Amino acid sequence: MELVNIRTLSADDLKSSLISLGQPAFRASQVYHWLWGQYVLDFSEMSNIGKAMQEVLTQNFISQKTKITQLQKSQDETIKVGFETYDGHAIEGVLIPTDSRVTICISSQIGCSLACTFCATGLMKRVRNLFAFEIYDQVKLMQELALQHYKRPITNIVYMGMGEPLLNLDEVVKSIFLLHDEAHGLNFSYKRITISTSGIVRGIQKLTELKIPINLALSLHAPNNALRTQIMDINKSNPLEEVVEALDSFYNLTQNKISFEYVLLRGINDSLEQAAELVALCRKVPAFVNIIEFNRVEGISYSKSDTPTKTSFVTYLREKGITCKIRRSRGKDIDAACGQLANKLNNVNLIS
Ligand code: SAH
Ligand code: SF4
User: DSSP for 103-155?
Assistant: First the structure.
């Protein structure tokens, strides 16, 4: 009989499984509390459930988990973390400290099925979706690292690592509930969680239906359909008007402004005409713009915009009243910056 990974079960699933194994329901709450409240994953360490119950668990379940395999600390204190999933795949996360925050960037898939032309993860195939528990593990393990290295806990979580979170919506939503859960999770406020998406309309609508008041970032990168489709294939089936409409409904629910991520690519999307189109988009849905410097990726031929071009682009947006931040690139010396999260250990999955 194949053992079930106990960490894939919800509280209700665990209860019915244990009842069907002839155990009383209260045992399920105890075990669930060990797993998610205490983060004790070894059945033999669950001290109040009795030897017989520990034996039942061992015979029916396994408790798989994610491990840290590598740590790299950048000169700017950014830490890149290499994780290994229970089945031997590499994923990555990043810890980014600032004066007031410790933000972590986590992965939602192993690889990515989309192939945005500027992204290192896009060069990989999608191997599989991550389970909610694997997303949760990244946060738990990075919490320990934050306390150890910065003496401060995590303040913000962004789903901006490997993968497209809205193409793994069920597990991503489960992970958000786990992180938010007061009794069994980290009691993490929705306001401090951000999902970054390439613009999956159905996924944005689902989040709206579920009324989860997190923040959404759209990897916009181009202000019109023609260019966007050229650099991000997903735009073909998810055109900008539909994405913006879905984002607007999400905004109406949460009142959280959308963040438009915009990587400046030299000669591609950095002209003043394009800045004007971007301003027009920002009038359709309450949004602010995050300008991101392009990080060089091996095998990808774009370059970052030069400084005068970047400055006039940003100045134009600001003159039109758009809130526009320039995101400092962190952890560059260790390949931890955006779009560089294609783990070298996963080289076998690279499309040659
Ligand atoms: N799939 C989701 C989540 C990954 S987020 C998404 O695309 O939004 C990764 C972020 O880094 C995205 O905003 C992505 O567009 C950006 N990015 C990808 N490649 C980059 C590069 N080479 N330089 C800078 N940013 C990049
Ligand atoms: Fe996937 Fe996001 Fe990279 Fe596009 S930018 S390939 S959606 S991870």
Answer: EEE--SEES-S---TT-SGGGBPP-EEPPHHHHHHHHHHHHHHHHHHHSS---
